[in-house]
Amino acid sequence: xxxxxxxxxKAWIVAGAAVAxxxxxxxxxxxxxYLVAGNLAGGIGGGAKALAKGAVPxxxxxxxxxxxxxxxAINPALLAAQLYQESGFNPKAQSPAAAQGIAxxxxxxxxxxxxxxxxxxxRDVWDPQDAIPxxxxxxxxxxxxxxxxxxxxxxxxxxxxxxxxxxxxxxxGVPPYRETQNYVKTITTLEASFAAPVGRVDPSEQAxxxxxxxxxxxxxxxxxxxxxxPEDGGRxxxxxLTKAAYESVGIxxxxxxxxxxxxxxxxxxxxxxxxxxxxxSDDLTNSRAIRHVGIYVGGGYMIDAPRTGAVIRFDxxxxxxxxxxxxxxxxxxxxxxxxx
Length: 340
Fold this sequence. Notes:
Blueprint: H1 2-21, H2 26-39, H3 58-67, H4 76-87, H5 107-113, H6 128-145, H7 153-163, H8 165-171, H9 178-194, H10 207-216, H11 238-247, H12 257-260, E1 277-280, E2 292-298, E3 301-304, E4 313-316, E5 322-326, H13 330-335
Antiparallel strand pairs: 1-2, 1-5, 2-3, 3-4
Helix pairs in contact: 1-2, 2-10, 3-4, 3-6, 4-9, 6-7, 7-8, 7-9, 10-11
């Protein structure tokens, strides 16, 4: 295993040198990505779910961290995933079904389960200081209803949230309802995109193909809002390029960069692999403020569509506005809501 990793490391060094020299290195990346995928299969998982850097807006991070530890069935990353799925962290969100606030409580549920989280004497569904604690409290209350049901306590709690505690008790676990099973999978998958990894993050097998697509677009003029369609003259903006690159290998990403950040787990800077998405922001505490994205290719470089007047090109990633990275996964991309 050690010898295999050394071979892969050499491949990355060669790939990095090729970037600097402006040479074609897609085949090196193809070989490297697949070798790493083989070497890291079955990588370390589990463990505590600390929040990933900036994944929760700074205004809510301490609330999510505190209340996400309210009971064993939840954790801060899971609570963050629920809030993102419900509202995209928008405290003013209101759905056509009258669900309200950052946690999207309907009035009847709020009347029964809303709590005064900040102790100011009222229960305000529009105030995250009340709504976030209420979401955690409601989760834990549901978990207590189904605590004697066999299986995973967190999945049973999420199933109770979607289908009701009675259904979970009746079926002895997550009930055989497609909607409920999809809901449980969606939230637990999104949880990984809000959690700081506790070990190695497996690379995507589609990464090399995404890089190959992006490399073919080098030299293409930038277009704000461009998706590369004939109507756009084949031009892209930054997130249009990354979306198209991963779409070429069968993974559909959201259109904007700050939602693409949630398409998988977040490797550290020294753990980057070719194909990771790399993000940039003027606010390093808030993934919702991300304004730029590129595709990492190794050697400290990415392929990106920088700005109006520029062309798709190689750029260095080690700049003061570097925010972080995402290792795109198929399940992570599928779990992302389309209306946040």
